[in-house]
Amino acid sequence: MIDFDTYTKLENEWYSKKQPLVEAGKYREAISVTEQFLENLKGDYDDKYSGKLAYGLLISLIDISHLIKDYSYALQKCHELDKIDLKKINRPDDGDAEFYLGATYYELGDMEKAEEYLLIAKKKSGGRCMELLGTDKYKQFLKSVEPSKEQLKQEKALTKLAKLIKDDDAVEDIDLFLKNMVKSGFFSVEDMAVGLKNFVECNYEEHLSKIKPKNTQTLLSLYTEAYASKKDPVNFRKFDSVFEELNKGGLVTLHAMGNTDDEGLEECKDEAVRRMKAKEKVTGYCYYTLQSLFNMFEYDSGQLLLSYGSFDDTSTVEDIGNLICKKFEEAGFEVVWNNDIKTKIGICIDWDNKYIVPEK
Predict the structure, then answer these.
(1) Contacts from 179-182 at CB under 8 Å and sequence distance 24+?
(2) What dihedral angle (degrees, nearest 10) is formed by the CA atoms of 272, 278, 281, 284?
């Protein structure tokens, strides 16, 4: 046990011996001198001033061992530092101990523990301790592994769903369904609420009682915040303009129509009949199903598959396919098609459609 005066005397004596050695690059000698002072405390770190002195000595040892890349030794001293009760030495817990542990684990190649301790250090210090060793590489490392704001929102949405429906398989499927609906940009909150209820009723009826209006509203709010496009829908507008041009040229073009090709084709036929009755010329069709859009999201393919075909003898299916490819290429899209009429046409697109509430 030492008092304040002894603490001050020892600290000054240690510093006057250690610092010239560090400045001269005699790091091993500096470590040896510091270890001697540490050993004289005989492990008594619980007393206010002995603990305070030990804290400073250990920080210095960790700093020097990082300079000479002796990370195994540094780790040993980090664990000693972590055992000091900061309350007893009247020092705020600002994450320094966790920072040194995280930085040392990083140098030892244990990135999992490095991330764990550096995250704690950042949280405790508000990020202020992240360059204690004179480099920002640990700060940059943390940036590379920390979840983004969007990922945190996504985790929050999934956590809410998991708490509501305690069934891993159901949660996985419902999570995917909700993400896809929001990402598509075609559904209002009311539409999604109906879709969610129908999906659960058809696939997980045992959990239907959990899909109450209040729960549904909360879930949809979280999923919309996490997955709705935040960008101006430039790509979708360009895509839609091609559909509109094809539509004016005699094709029935429909967005996100049906869950299967049969459903989508039936919708196109119905629209073709309506237009023919109105004396409009209809030569063929082009559409993509909702499932095709969802598959693009799920597999992160970046390629939306279009179905197409002919309604009369004036244009063959191949003619329709070539026309669709030509118009999308002219609009600046990359198109993937092998000229086989049995193969769908792939349009490469960064999907950015988002639901816009209609003006009243």
Answers:
(1) 179/223, 179/227, 179/297, 180/293, 180/294, 180/297, 180/298, 182/223, 182/224, 182/226, 182/227, 182/228
(2) -10
Q: Per residue in 145-184, pLDDT tens? A: 888 889 889 999 999 999 999 999 999 999 999 999 999 9
Task: List per-block mean pLDDT (blocks of 10 residues) for the chain, which spans 360 residues.
Answer: 93 97 97 96 87 96 97 97 93 94 97 95 91 93 87 94 95 97 96 96 95 94 96 96 97 96 97 96 97 95 96 93 98 97 97 86
- Closest of 2, 13, 93 to residue 48, by C-alpha: 2
pLDDT value of residue 358: 77
d(CA 148, CA 271): 44
Burial (CB count within 10 angstroms: exposed 0-12, middle 13-18, buried 19+), residue 267: middle
pLDDT of residue 360: 63
Question: Which of the 8 DSSP states describes residue 243?
Answer: H
Residue type present at position 301 = S
User: What are phi and psi for residue 109, nearest 5 degrees?
Assistant: 90, 5
pTM (two decimals): 0.68
- Here the contacts of 121-130 (C-beta below 8 Å, separation 24 or greater) are 121/95, 121/96, 122/95, 123/95, 124/93, 124/94, 124/95, 124/98, 125/94, 125/95, 125/96, 125/99, 128/94, 129/94, 129/95, 129/96, 129/99, 130/99
DSSP 165: S
Looking at the chain, how many residues does it have? 360
The three-state secondary structure class of 54 is helix
For β-strands 284-287 and 251-254, DSSP reports them as parallel
